[in-house]
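ok here's the first one, seq then struct tokens
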Amino acid sequence: MKGKDFLSITDLEPDEVALMVQRARHIKETETPRPLEGKVLALIFEKPSLRTRVSFEVGIRQMGGECIYLSNADIGLGTREPEIDVARVLDRLVDGIVARVFSHRSLEILAENTTIPVINALSDLAHPCQALGDLLTINESKGNLEGLNVTYVGDGNNIASSLALACSSVGANFTISAPGDYHVPSIAWDEARRRAAQKESLLDWVEKPQDAVKSADVVYTDVWISMGDEAEADERRRVFAEYQVNTELMGLAKSDAVFMHDMPAHRGEEVSDEMFDHPKSVVFHQAENRLHAQKAVMAELFSR
């Protein structure tokens, strides 16, 4: 890892991404290391969460540490108190920060003004811990990563950005199917292209989901309306109406393809209700694997 923090998949060199997935699988299958003995981490959550909060709290405790949960009401990051002041105070009181924030810039300010590790638990631009857990799930389901075809159907949001970077780092082919105005931001897409070229994998955008899922080993989707997009809800539902992942669309993928969703889901919108209990669904394995991926990240940052 390039520095003391994990804010994006780009904090890992391409080869390090695969190594992190291997580390997560080793932790899951063997024994959890305990580099957090005697350490306390602050969990700053501007946004509510089920999987992220529980997986981090459980992981920290399993690794020997303690944590303090700080909601938006507790801190008011950037409103009640500037991020730089929060950073400098916590730097003197805790041993690490896990932050789930609205703005990626808030993470950067926390990282720039602390000497302790800062971990991105979600921002508007990236969700790197989710992407590592996704790769672990794909690796377990398919037996490998290199050469697989991963197709993401839906909004080119933070999940799509991190997944594109993660897949291109390990030699998996990544296709996004989205309307033209909802593509992955260029800053993430351009870096994913660079990594794909290095790994000799493919990166593509296909507008029609029926064409995009052909030959897919993995079909992945996420909500059309993320937190913060509520004002655009009606327009997004209209634009994405043809992008629902359902049994019909899944039937166009490879016969042994798996279905993934990072959750929470808006059932009946981006995904039909029956897909969660479909034989090809691995969404609950995916939810569990956040725990193991995040423990791998913490083991890396706190074992130095």
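and now the second one, same deal
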Amino acid sequence: MSLIDSIIPARAVEANNALRAPLSKHLRWLESEAIHIMRETVAETRNPALLFSGGKDSIVMLRIAEKAFRPDRFPFPLVHIDTEHNFPEVIAFRDQKVAELNEKLIVRSVGDGIRSGRIMLRRADESRNVHQTTTLLDTIKEFEFDALFGGARRDEEKARAKERIISHRDEWGQWDPKNQRPELWSLYNLRIHPGEHVRVFPLSNWTELDIWQYIAHENLAVPSIYFSHRREIVERKGMLVPVTELTPSKAGETVLTQAVRFRTVGDITCTAPVASDAVTVDEIIEETLLSRLTERGATRLDDQTSDASMEQRKKEGYF
């Protein structure tokens, strides 16, 4: 018996086996909690929406929504704030998944905000990731959303670990970490004043490992770049940076072709892959179990180089 099998004796070996096996007690509890949060939010708010980027966490969110509301249509639209610098594999997957579900997708672009002068970049090659805040808040105002489901998890980053499942945002979309509502006994306060809204995080208590084990059990499709593939990269500040038109190599850097995969699939300009030979979900589960670096700590360049911390960005209205 391998080390992994001794630690996770019930993990799925193949997708078919995963479908036949019942959810573990732990995952069943997480799923039930997420379904409860979604249903409570829909019951208590007027105009919710679900943020869907095509990434693994939002894919799990869609599955939770299916279990909460099918066979009816979702009682909310899907929303994507597109930087126009996303990986094409992820955008193609997003559109395919929405078509399969036959749900409504609202896309608003950071690029449109730049072209209109609503968003000003400090330099041409600046990452658009942080500027999603402006487009997100504009979208909330345009459609008068009063609740937004997001796929953030507390294990991703220390600022996200501070945030409650129901995160109140004031009329400017801002978050006050020192003024959060209690959530005792799974009772959630969704009351807001006109112009305010809440961000709702049903996956708050999930970990990256939970996400992949759930994907295995539910046999969920994910974008191809989550699996090992060969691509050109450079090593920069301890990370592997993909060589693309948006992220070219710099003088003195050596371009290598290496087997890598992405643990997260954000904006190309701030998302780094990790070295990996994992070509199946089960192999990703094994790598995730043994990893000593958090998902964002290992792959997000903006967390390393941004002038604003994640907490500051969230105070201003970021996801």
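notes on #2: The beta strands are 48-51, 78-82, 105-109, 147-149, 166-169, 197-200, 229-236, 239-242, 256-261, 274-275. The domain at 9-210+307-315 is CATH 3.40.50.620 (Rossmann fold).
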